[in-house]
Each structure stands twice: as C-alpha cells, then as structure tokens.
Amino acid sequence: xxxxxxxKFPLDLxxxxxxxxxxxxxxIAVDYQGERLAMWAIVDRExxxxxxxxxxFGTGHPMKIQREMRRLGTIQKDGxxxxxxx
Length: 86
Prior knowledge:
The chain is mainly beta. The chain is 0% helix and 60% strand. It has strands spanning 5-10, 16-22, 26-33, 36-43, 49-58, 71-77, 80-85.
C-alpha cells in the first residue's frame, strides 16, 4: 500500500510554465523558500508522471485565460504581488 506524501516542486516567476509531477497530485501551497519559489503538492509517489500548467499573474495584469483555474496562493517579491493558479 502506498501512502500519499508531500513533495516540493521548484517554480520560476514567469507567466506560464509546465511542471511534471505524479498523476493526480493535489497542489496545496506556493511560497518562497529562501530565494526560490516553490509549489508543494500531495502526491502518490508510485503514480506515473503527468504535466500541469502553472499560471502566475501580477496584480493589475490582464488574465488572458481560456480554461478553468484554481487559485493556489499569493506571493510577494521585490515590492510586487503575484497570484498563482493551477
């Protein structure tokens, strides 16, 4: 029997990116750890890999989206505020 665990995935501070993680993973948080942006997710470490798209929008920036999204969190860096969605 495999129990879920929480893994950390590094992110870049960019509008769109693809992250590879175990299929069915549930992203639960996003924040800076030191100087590095990261996302944490509950994963089944035995599941096959899949990719998800992570979107990051600055406050006041247009949100040009064409799919349903879930807000993961808000982060601040160098006086700017960013909102992260999966």
